[in-house]
Amino acid sequence: MTALPEDLKARFERDGFVILEDAIESATLEALRGAIAEHAAAHDPEADQAVFRTDDRDAGREETFFASARGIQAFLEAEALDEDGSLREPRDRCLNKIGHALHDLDPRFEALARSEAVRSAFALGGLERPRLVQSMVIFKPAGIGGEVRWHQDASYLLTEPQRVVGLWVALEDADRTNGCLWMAPGSHRGPLRERFEVDWDARSGALHDLDSTPWPQEAVPLEVRAGSMVVFHDLMPHRSDANRSERSRVAVTLHAHEAGAAWAPENWLQRETMPHFDL
Questions:
Q1: Residue 13 vs residues 9, 157, 218, 236: alpha-carbon distances, Å
Q2: Could you tell me where the DSSP H helices lie in the chain?
Q3: Which of 27, 67, 197, 266 is 20 to 30 A off residue 5, Cα-Cα?
């Protein structure tokens, strides 16, 4: 890390994100890879076919998704299944994501969450007392990893006052050929464009338009090495392309908010009976 902390904080406020190269040590990366392999092997894609995709305006959210806030649930890539619901891809390359309480239920993810690197990254994002609410593995498998449309994390994780900080940890090298993140520096100063709200009586959620401001027309690819971490603002629009390469692009993401902030009751993620996870 060549820049001083003050410089990094200023860059975060200016650009809406900061890349911390080589932030996570190799031993931690190996421990996480082992944990991910275990969770992936424990999932039976023939029996549990929950799919995660973003090209349907989040219409497919249901009980499995809501329950994952308090557990560890695997979700398939849409292209992993054929019209009859059978796997068209090998088990080891059919997953889209695993989430969302890995830090609560797996000590290897808890160790990552409580590491100095993660605590410092949340402080860089402006959190004095970070409360971790979400952890997940995003696979972006070779050949079938789906496109993730432009979105803002505040659409799904809203607090008052508003500030959720996301961390994106690369477990594998990410570049524009295998679906790296794209962001437009400074675009976090724009409005919140959409809001995903859950009607808990009906047990269903819907994505509502809030502002017609177009998504960024120009963006930069965040090409990073394994072990790097991206710290980003909850209003920062970001996306990733489909992965049609022969390389996967596995990453771990963590999201936290200030412990004193109010958590919106319409947010899809409700931990309910789980204790607060304060860093």
A1: 6, 20, 19, 11
A2: 5-15, 26-42, 63-67, 102-105, 107-113, 116-124
A3: 27
pLDDT tens per residue, range 58-81: 666 778 899 999 999 999 998 988
Is residue 249 a contact partner of residue 180, using CB atoms and an 8 Å limit? yes
Structure tokens at 219: 């963006």
Q: Provide DSSP, 155-199.
A: GTS-EES--EEEEEEESS-B-TTTT-EEE-TTGGGS---EEEEEE
Distance from chain centroid for Cα 180? 13
User: SS3 for 214?
Assistant: coil
Q: Which domain holds residue 74?
A: 5-278
Rounded-to-integer distance, Cα 146 and Cα 242, Å: 5
Q: What are the pLDDT digits (tens) for 34-55?
A: 999 999 999 988 777 788 877 7
Residue 118's CATH number: 2.60.120.620
What is the rounded distance in angstroms from the CA atom of residue 162 to the CA atom of residue 127?
11
Kindly report the pTM of this predicted structure.
0.94
- Alpha-carbon distance values, 124 to 35, 130, 131, 165, 254 (Å): 27, 11, 15, 9, 14
Instruction: Domain count for the chain, please give it.
Output: 1
Distance separating alpha carbons of residues 96 and 249, to the nearest angstrom:
11
